[in-house]
Amino acid sequence: MKKNKEILYIVVPCYNEEEVLTETTKQLKLKLTKLIKDNKISEESRVMYVNDGSSDKTWELIEEISKKEKLFTGISLSRNRGHQNALLGGLMTAKNYADIVISMDADLQDDIEAIDQMLEKYKLGNDIVYGVRNARLTDSWFKRVTAEGFYKFMQKMGVDIVYNHADYRLMSKRALNNLENFKEVNLFLRGLVPLIGYKSDVVYYERKERFAGKSKYPLKKMLNFAWDGITSFSIKPIRLILNIGIIMFILSILILFYSLFMKFIGKTVAGWTFIICSLWLVGGIQMLSLGIIGEYIGKIYNETKSRPRYIISRNLIEEDTKK
Ligand code: UDP
Ligand code: MG
């Protein structure tokens, strides 16, 4: 039996977001107050900011907000660990206090009006509700093309992800408890969540422009993220190497016959170009293969160390209850 008033936590990772936090707080406060007033969620619901080792005033701001506003709280990671780790830290902390957790970005790009629909879908028995952008009108041409290409490529690589879904989603406590058992260090949450496998649904929303400040995902981070997504979820690149290897092997047998044939008809010196070409080709393929295999070994190396994925240095909820 589900309680009729459940505790909702909204987890918001923040990295150098001092420019947007005040506005985000204003809007989330309105939303949360309204949901509580309409009896849709318990009055113990909160917004939990996760400070991901910001170098600006973000954490001071979070502390200040949480003192002033009853509906706001926060945790702080010991250093910058990246969006995915910060998000995980927030989700795993929030699930100790909440029945439902929604994760969203700090920059108000995720339309907070979609929260109502998410809650409705949750009430209908979904443990996971994905927020999906129905348009990318506000993203730059470059971001749109690379991001959409990424989703398509991931699907080709056999990774089960929801198209155009980022990290704006609702998860039940039960789903989060299961997420905790996925111990990998190379985190790619939007690939992991579908693996939990509970009943899920999607909610469409329009992605807005970043409210203020710059994107904290420069191209280099985006590429790293995409690469992690592929190599943490797909072994197709390794298979590709195997296939190339097989083709090369067949080719080399053909070449053996060819060169023997040439020897018999006495034209051996003419093979110089051919030797040089194949030398470079084979060398190149070997280097490439070693590189890809090395990448996976690197991943194994990191996973076997199984270091903590985040370390919380402050937790305002705990600090409040002690006072
Ligand atoms: N973020 C984070 N740690 C990082 C980088 C980003 O916690 O190292 C947060 C950031 O504060 C924001 C969210 O992740 O709330 C998404 O980042 P951003 O909006 O810059 O990405 P974009 O929307 O441009 O893809
Ligand atoms: Mg953003």
Fraction of residues in H or I helices: 40-55%
DSSP helical segment count: 11
Kindly give the count of domains. 2
Low-confidence stretches: none
CATH homologous superfamily classification of the largest domain:
Spore Coat Polysaccharide Biosynthesis Protein SpsA, Chain A
Q: Any idea what the radius of gyration is?
A: 25 Å
CATH second-level architecture of the largest domain:
Alpha-Beta Complex
Class of the largest domain in CATH? Alpha Beta
What ligands does this structure carry?
Answer: uridine-5'-diphosphate, magnesium ion
Strands of the widest sheet, in order across it, are 7-5-6-4-1-2-3-8
Residues in β-strands, percent: 5-15%
Shape verdict: elongated
Order of helices and strands: EHEHEHEHEHEHHEHHHEH
What is the CA-CA span between the terminal residues? Answer: 34 Å
Helix-and-strand structural type: alpha/beta
Biggest beta sheet attributes: 8 strands, mixed
Observed structural traits:
single chain, binds magnesium ion, alpha/beta, about 15% strand, 2 domains, Spore Coat Polysaccharide Biosynthesis Protein SpsA, Chain A, elongated, binds uridine-5'-diphosphate, 8-stranded mixed beta sheet, about 325 residues, 11 helices
What does this structure look like?
The chain has 323 residues and is an alpha/beta fold. The chain folds into 2 domains: 8-217 and 308-322, Spore Coat Polysaccharide Biosynthesis Protein SpsA, Chain A (Alpha-Beta Complex), CATH 3.90.550.10; 236-305. Helix content is 52%, strand content 15%. It is built from 11 helices and 8 strands. An 8-stranded mixed beta sheet has the order 7-5-6-4-1-2-3-8, sandwiched between helices. Strand 2 (46-51), helix 2 (58-68) and strand 3 form a beta-alpha-beta unit. Helix 1 (18-37) runs parallel beside helix 2. It is elongated, with a radius of gyration of 25 Å. The structure holds uridine-5'-diphosphate (UDP) and magnesium ion. Uridine-5'-diphosphate binds at residues 13-15, 17, 52, 80, 82-83, 86, 105-107, 109, 215-217.
